[in-house]
Here is the input.
Amino acid sequence: MRDRLRDLAREQLRHQSRPVAAVIVEPMPGPPDVIPPPEFLQRAQDIAREFGGVFISDEMITGFGRTGRWFACERSGVTPT
Here is the structure.
């Protein structure tokens, strides 16, 4: 399922008529007990780089220590650009 979703995102971005400026993600979408696997953000960052966009991690809800780390994206080893 995860690979299908990643491939779907890539396919949609390939057919854009304009360049990709950014990929913006919420590191932990949904209820607080739903934690996506670490590769979720890694794959999102890879897609952003592949299409020349910046990777933005929207940390309004999950940042500032709410996940045990200063920012939720630190759990995945990614650094927003």
Remarks:
- The chain is about 30% helix and 10% strand.
